[in-house]
Amino acid sequence: MVALLGQRDAFLKLIEAAFRSDILVRGNEITIQGPSDETERVARIFEELLELLERGNDLSEDSVSQAISMVTGGVVEPGEDTPRPSEVLGDNLLSNRGKKIAPKTVGQKRYVDAIRSNTVTFAIGPAGTGKTYLAVAVAVRALQERQVSRLILTRPAVEAGERLGFLPGTLYEKIDPYMRPLYDALYEMTGPDTLPRLMERGVVEVAPLAFMRGRTLNDAFIILDEAQNTTPEQMKMFLTRLGFGSKAVVNGDATQVDLPNGQSSGLRVVEEILTDIDGLSFVHLGGKDVVRHEIVQHIVEAYGRFGQQKLGVDG
């Protein structure tokens, strides 16, 4: 019961705050009193939390809050069943040093499932929705299970522009700041001792998008990050690098383009070009999928509303 209700009933208080029903706990028995439709939802939350515990997952205030959100009105695509929180939060992608990595929202679960079942997956959404983090977790798991023989992470170093040649140091020292977010995710998934060995053996490669030109990438899991900063030509170049036995994930935020004025974003046009292709999927993530501080979710949603209003005025 401590695992279910939390220390000092912290989880119980979260559930009580979300509903009007009275929740009474006596020993190992929980009684819920209130409107029938609401008591059913409360009971379902407890059932899902128990299922998570039985699967070996530790509960946290974050996971309990996510479970409440899913049961009380999570975003569901047309034609889809309401997702079970235990299936979303219990989908452990990777375990590293006692920490389990799993989707935290319905959208993130949909994204992970798309990566598993497609050759090429596009994830479009704002910062904080786990686009890169979850893709790296799935990729490292595929590497561990020998589904692929190498992992390649790339992103365009747009911010460097023509200044790249004037930066001090070797080429890798110049591009390191632009690759750092990818290194950070890899370090967390593999550990600081393992990653250098994998990179030295060529099992893991982190490189600017320009390094992909002219290559054919077989038996690899390839992640293109910050894809909104590719041109349509660069996007086509990347997608045509895919070889036999490979899988690709393309991530980006179409609202955060850093390309010079007048240049089109390859991410913005690719969905219009690549339609009805088997093995290729587009997943759109939104404010509900932001898993940083709650205020970040509100900020993302506010910017989204502002952008829609401005589009309506300009249109």
Q: How would you characterize this protein structure?
A:
This protein has 12 helices and 10 strands. The protein is an alpha/beta fold. β8 (220-224), α10 and β9 form a beta-alpha-beta unit. The longest helix is centred in the C-terminal third of the chain and has 21 residues, at 294-314. The N and C termini lie far apart (56 Å). Mean pLDDT is 86; it is low at 75-79.
Topology:
Layout: H1 2-5, H2 10-18, E1 22-26, E2 29-33, H3 36-54, H4 61-73, H5 85-89, E3 94-96, E4 99-101, H6 106-117, E5 120-124, H7 131-144, E6 150-155, H8 171-190, H9 194-200, E7 204-208, E8 220-224, H10 232-239, E9 247-252, H11 266-273, E10 280-284, H12 294-314
Parallel strand pairs: 5-9, 5-10, 6-7, 6-8, 8-9
Antiparallel strand pairs: 1-2, 3-4
Helix pairs in contact: 2-4, 3-4, 6-7, 7-8, 10-11
Strand content: 15-25%
Mean pLDDT: 86
Number of helices: 12
Based on secondary structure, the structural category is alpha/beta
Shape: globular
Give me the side-by-side strand order of the main sheet. Answer: 7-6-8-9-5-10
User: Looking at the chains present, what oligomeric state does this protein adopt?
Assistant: single chain
Distance N to C terminus: 56 Å
Describe this structure in a few short sentences.
By secondary structure, the chain is α/β, with parallel strands linked by helices. Helices cover 44% and strands 15% of the residues.
Q: What are the main properties of this structure?
A:
15% strand; two-stranded antiparallel sheet; single chain; alpha/beta; 315 residues; six-stranded parallel sheet; 10 strands
